[in-house]
Design goal:
By secondary structure, the protein is mainly alpha-helical. Helix content is 73%, strand content 0%. The protein has helices at 14-38, 49-56, 59-82, 90-117, 131-140, 144-151, 156-159, 161-182, 187-201, 207-212, 214-233, 238-257, 259-264, 272-290, 300-307, 309-329, 337-377, 391-398. The protein starts with 13 loop residues before the first helix and ends with a helix. The protein is globular. The chain has one domain. The chain is built from 18 helices and no strands. Helix 1 runs antiparallel to helix 14, helix 3 crosses helix 11 (214-233) and helix 9 (187-201) runs antiparallel to helix 11.
Length: 401
């Protein structure tokens, strides 16, 4: 096999898995970095500031990439399953989301509750933050972001649930919006409205709310939805796909790698930086979903991360906290810091893979088979032009994230 001849991984879209792998990589790097900073471990000497910022300060942008990918995959899967968004079955849509999200979320909350009650450092919800009951209520009703904005940052393993709050609140209303607006051709204007409101939301409120508000993340999801709709109607030429992919990669490199210029150009202060990032992500997804792109072997680790992104995201803080505790016990040796970062990525990937294989994926199948019957697992035949020709088959496999 040549360098580009990677065996297909269950029909998935390699380009999209790489995007998710990059996103979760940035989240992992940020959370290790934050613990080092909070413990006053100054390790960045000798590393160019731009490079260091690109490696360890892109966790928020990584989540925005997740949002765009999620919007694309859910919309593509809905088109694949029901043929058109105006025919989305609300019960079937909610079952699909519940089967994917609920098993691991419930297990995570159970473990976090036990650790809180046991008084384990890094897991305890203080009374000032509302205590355990308030945190559980926020997690189960998708407003952890609201709780954080009003009370302050929650402990890391709890705080990461803010992004799930944004995503699932969008999908709570998505099938209803499809039924009400798609037939009247008003769904696209509605999604465009979210795109316009996103940058505005990222410039209002306190710092936490600017980072974690509903509208501040929904513009990326909406852009992903719009991209899927575009893909369903337009088949791009090979030349156009190369141009779109190159432009998307350039946008991503600029936002992820040149934070100083992003700041100086006012993209942060206007909230447009994340919009540019989401657009770049969407352009890459168009190219990846229609071009038969196969990732080279060297990108295999990002593929592995991307394929387990949901499980890695929800469980990685256990790894980060355990490794950092071990690092502190060793006396915070500077030479061990690169090992700390690498170990966090590798062990989080292994943990996420194990959780997916032995728990979340079996539970996902069980719930769909038990309550959805054959319809929950069947994929409708799609006529040419109704969805991304090469992308849809893969997107169904990836749709649960």
């Amino acid at each position: 096999m040549g360098s580009n001849d990677r065996a297909p991984s269950s029909g998935r879209i390699d380009g999209i898995d790489i995007l998710r792998g990059l996103a979760i990589f940035f989240v992992l790097m940020l959370h290790v970095h934050v613990h080092l900073v909070l413990d006053k471990v100054h390790y960045g000497r000798g590393i160019p500031r731009q490079l260091l910022a690109a490696l360890v300060w892109n966790g928020q942008t990584g989540v925005q990439m997740f949002f765009a990918v999620s919007g694309f995959l859910i919309t593509t899967t809905s088109l694949r399953r029901w043929g058109t968004l105006s025919k989305v079955r609300v019960g079937g849509f909610y079952l699909m989301r519940f089967a994917r999200i609920a098993p691991l979320l419930v297990m995570l909350l159970a473990v976090l509750s036990v650790l809180h009650l046991a008084g384990i450092g890094g897991f305890v919800i203080s009374p000032q933050l509302g205590g355990l009951g308030r945190a559980l209520a926020a997690a189960l009703t998708f407003h952890v972001n609201v709780l954080s904005a009003h009370r302050g940052y929650l402990p890391g393993p709890w705080d990461i649930l803010w992004s799930l709050s944004v995503e699932e609140m969008f999908y709570l209303f998505f099938p209803l919006a499809c039924l009400l607006f798609a037939r009247r051709k008003l769904l696209v204007p509605l999604l465009c409205m979210f795109v316009v409101l996103g940058p505005i939301a990222r410039t209002h409120g306190n710092q936490i709310w600017r980072e974690k508000s509903y509208l501040g993340g929904m513009d990326a999801i909406a852009l992903g939805c719009l991209t899927a709709l575009l893909c369903s109607r337009v088949r791009f030429s090979a030349k156009a796909l190369r141009i779109l992919g190159a432009c998307g990669a350039a946008f991503l490199i600029f936002i992820l790698g040149f934070s100083r210029e992003v700041y100086e150009w006012g993209l942060d202060s206007t909230g447009l930086g994340m919009t540019v990032l989401a657009i770049g992500t969407c352009l890459v997804m168009i190219a990846a979903s229609q071009s038969h792109y196969k990732a080279p072997r060297v990108l295999g680790p990002f593929l592995d991360l991307g394929q387990r992104s949901y499980e890695v995201y929800l469980t990685h803080m256990f790894v980060v906290l355990a490794l950092f505790h071990f690092f502190v016990e060793l006396g915070k040796p500077m030479l061990a810091i690169p090992v700390l970062f690498v170990a966090a990525v590798l062990l989080s990937t292994l943990l996420g893979d194990g959780v997916a294989r032995f728990y979340s994926e079996p539970m996902n199948r069980l719930i769909r088979q038990r309550w959805g019957g054959s319809r929950a697992n069947a994929v409708a035949t799609v006529a040419p032009g109704t969805a991304c020709p090469e992308g849809n088959r893969s997107a169904v496999t990836q749709s649960g994230d």
